[in-house]
Amino acid sequence: MVSSHKYTMLINGQQIQGAATLEVLNPATEEIIAHAPDASREQLDAAVAAANTAFLQWSRRPIAERQALVKEIARCIEDNKDELSRIFIAEMGRSRDGAEWEMVTAANWCRGTAQYDLPVTVIEDNDEHRVEVRHTPIGVVGAITPWNAPILIAIWKLAPALLAGNTVVLKPSPYTPLTTLRLGELLRDILPAGVLNIVSGGNELGQWITEHPDITKVSFTGSTATGRRVMESASRTLKRITLELGGNDAAIVLPDVDPKVVAPALFWGAFFNSAQVCVATKRLYIHEDIYDAVAQELVKYARTITIGDGSQEGVDLGPVQNKMQFEKVKNLLDSTREQGHRFLLGGEAPEGKGYFIPVSIVDNPPQDSRVVIEEAFGPVLPLLKYKDIDEVIAWANDSDTGLAGSVWSNDLEQAHEVAGRLQTGTVWINEMFAFSPHAPFSGHKQSGLGAEHGMEGLLEFTNTQTITTRKVPMTA
Ligand code: NAD
């Protein structure tokens, strides 16, 4: 099914073949499952031209009509959940439950976003003047997504961009373009031609988007290194940009928790999607009084987890999504071993087909070791012992990035106090991944620029316009 389908791009309401093709692999088998279009620069130009033409009508439609169409995207995802999940598992490697969760969450996101209206704020209204602040769409949005959550992250961009009255040119990652392309094919008859265009290709295509003179806003999710390139390239035409980048997220476990109770939530907070989650726990700080007990419960829980091909029943965690990332994580495991740090579990990738890495837990490595300071973006988690709350907060904040973090305690007041001292855009207390279409998500430091979600996220897809009306009649 996945391999027999001829995936096409969506340009001006037409399904278009690429100028060339890209091979897409299943990371669980390393087999080629499809050839995706590889867009030429001329094809990108055609998509941008179509989006610019469509903008004239789309931006002037009443917002109620745009809200209705964003809800239609939700319905389309739900109606096609099984097919989209199947493609997603094959290209991404995620478990079946994980794939379905992504589709359901993406649909809910569209509905949550569709509740918003663009505000008009009256600053002054008296006999002489009326001053109002409005928010107008920007134009053509270039949306660039990574491989770890291709549908959800695409929706995080499309839904608010379209709702605000922009048109979109979306580029998925070359590693996982298929589900996004298929969604585009399904949306062809729902959205007016040119409102949403989907082009696939390599990293060069991303660069062309960030340089394109007729794209006025770029919303990018990916690594911090690429984010810097996007910012540099977008600066030449002074595009508006939103950047959601990497992080080295810390969880802090206070001494009052029950290790057995907290272990499963700590596990999933670190290892969901085989730890390929920007906001997953990458460093787990545990108070020394309960360090051994938490470590033991985590290892015990981790031993109950099944790793394998996500298309198989009973699989909890799939492979790492691509060879580049697989080699990076293997290298980190090797260096951790070479530096003499002890694994409580895992530590070595098995031989054989597929980019599989076992759940790997490292026992209290030094604070400045590679496994602590690097974003692994794979199933490797260092556990770190701390004594003092000020010391652990300083360690958690000792990073150039500041995406998310979590605090675990039965004392909610103390947990809240600790949360407020973390230099990250998001902090969860006693849970993880509690995202909402209404709560802003943003990175501090080098984890990004701007915000997604909620009113703050929606306004990132608008320009501010102040209209001042002089009410006093003009006289000669
Ligand atoms: P990546 O930066 O390599 O690629 C992301 C996207 O950018 C891909 O579509 C890629 O083709 C494109 N791209 C590459 N070079 C480009 C360039 N010069 N100009 C424009 N586009 C370019 O990231 P990845 O490896 O796909 O994803 C993993 C990274 O993403 C991790 O660091 C992770 O933390 C981060 N991430 C962040 C969030 C967030 O919301 N903050 C969410 C998911 C992933």
TrEMBL record:
It holds the Pfam family Aldedh. The active site is at E244. InterPro entries: Ald_DH/histidinol_DH, Ald_DH_C, Ald_DH_CS_GLU, Ald_DH_N, Aldehyde_DH_dom, LUC3-like. The keyword Nucleotide-binding does not apply. Keywords: Oxidoreductase. Residues 20-467 form the Aldehyde dehydrogenase domain. GO terms for molecular function: oxidoreductase activity, acting on the aldehyde or oxo group of donors, NAD or NADP as acceptor. Belongs to the aldehyde dehydrogenase family. This is Aldehyde dehydrogenase family protein. It comes from Kineobactrum salinum. The lineage of its organism: Bacteria, Pseudomonadati, Pseudomonadota, Gammaproteobacteria, Cellvibrionales.
